[in-house]
Amino acid sequence: MSTIQTAEKGIDVEPLELIRRAEKSRTTVRRIRELLEGDRCVSTIKQGDWFSTIEHVRDETGVDLVLFSENRYGASVKGLDESGLWVASASYDERLGFNSSKRPRWDVEDGLTFFQPNDPHPEFCRLEDAKARLEQYR
After folding, report:
1. Gap between the Cα atoms of 23 and 74, Å rounded
2. Alpha carbon of 51 to those of 10, 29, 30, 69, 91: distances in Å?
C-alpha cells in the first residue's frame, strides 16, 4: 500500500489509516477496512463498498484515493470524479495498449464483485502513485 502525503502538517499517512479515519459508524467502510486488515474475505465485500469508501475518505480527510489493480496483462486505475457519479479509469493492456474512459459509477461497481477468497482485489492508493505505477508499463 502506498503512503499518502496529507495537507495536515505534511504527515505521511497510509491509505488504511485514512480509511480508519473515515469509518466512524459506516458499515461500507468497515467492511473494506476489515478486508485490508485481513479480517474479512473479499467475497463478502459488496459492490458499492469500494467507491463508497473512496467517497467517505474524500469527505472526511480531503484525500482522493483510487483503486489500482494489476493482472497478467496489465494494470488499471479507477477513481471517482468530483460528483461521485462517474468513474474515470485508465488502463494498460499488453494486447490493446493504453486506454481511458469515463463510465457511470453503478456500471463499474457491477464489475467489482469477487467470488473466491483468493481473488486478487484492487489496492487503494493516491492518484499520483497510481499514475506513476501505470506509467511503468510504457
Report:
1. 31
2. 26, 10, 13, 14, 18
Are 97 and 23 spatial neighbours (Cβ–Cβ below 8 Å)? Answer: no
pLDDT per position as a tens digit, 83-98 = 889 999 999 999 889 9
What number of other Cβ atoms are within 10 A of residue 83's Cβ?
7
The pLDDT of 59-79, averaged and rounded, is 92
Residue 13 clears pLDDT 90, i.e. is over it? no
DSSP string, 56-110: HHHHHHSPPEEEEEEETTEEEEEEE-TTSSEEEEEEEETTTEEEEEEEEHHHHHH
Mean pLDDT of the chain: 86
